[in-house]
Amino acid sequence: MKINNFEPLSIEKDTFLIEIFSKGEGTKHIRVAAWVTFTYLALVKEDVSLDISIESTGEWAHILAKSLCIAKENSDITLKMHGHLKHNHATADLHMISLLQNNSVCEIDWGVDLHAWVHKISGHLLEENIILWENIKIKTLPMLDVHSSDVSASHGARIERLDEKKLFYMKSRWLDSTQAKELILSWYFEQVFAVFKESEIPENKKTIWDLQQERLTYLLN
Fold first, then answer.
1. Angle at 145 (CA atoms; ends 111, 137), nearest 5 degrees
2. DSSP-based three-state secondary structure for 79
3. What is the rounded distance in angstroms from the CA atom of residue 4 to the CA atom of residue 190?
4. Which of 76, 86, 100 is nearest to 53 (CA)?
């Protein structure tokens, strides 16, 4: 794992990759070869301006991209990620969760582009923005850009606060406010990290666990 690595990548074999972006700005271009599954996680925090493009370079390229964006108090984050499907049977599944604290500013451009003259392609997009405090400024543009009729595609986005009913229920079960909030936030973290825990290498599983706990602690402190 590297921090603020903006070097272009060519993915030629099945790959799990996690990258961290913090207090930097740049553009990253990733190319995924035919018959390759690329599983990617971008961890974003503090003041970042980031533009990531992931594209297929052959048939049956599979892109699974996730992002966890933590906008701490008074931070400013601009995040753009687009998957480009240019070949038959290619797929892209993008999922982002942002957690927004007091006075943070977050601008998100998240999308899947399904190019013309390709067939049997699949593009899906989900964006979740969780407001943890007041005075949040957020601009979001979830987009499917479809230029083929032979596709499977969907997109969704929401902006919401932590569920007060869930917090109340947990506190009624003898959890204090901090414990209840931590439990709910852990569920969001698990959505992002779960697929990376499928690695069969014990060292990788420990690294993922450590990253998840580190990010949760960072958010709550």
1. 40
2. strand
3. 23
4. 86
List % helix, strand, coil for the chain (3-state, nearest 5). 20, 50, 25
Q: Tell me the C-alpha distance between 100 and 81, whole Å.
A: 18
Q: Under a CB-based contact definition with an 8 Å cutoff, are residues 132 and 103 in contact?
A: no
- pLDDT score for 82: 97
- Mean pLDDT of successive 10-residue stretches along the chain, which has 221 residues: 92 94 95 97 94 98 96 94 98 96 94 96 96 90 92 93 83 83 90 79 70 88 83
Closest to 85 in 3D by CA, of 104, 107, 58: 58
Its pTM surpasses 0.90: yes
Q: Where are the domains of the chain?
A: 9-161, 163-221
β-sheet bridge partners, residue 88: none
- For residue 3, give the DSSP letter: B
Nearest to 209 by CA among 19, 199, 219: 199
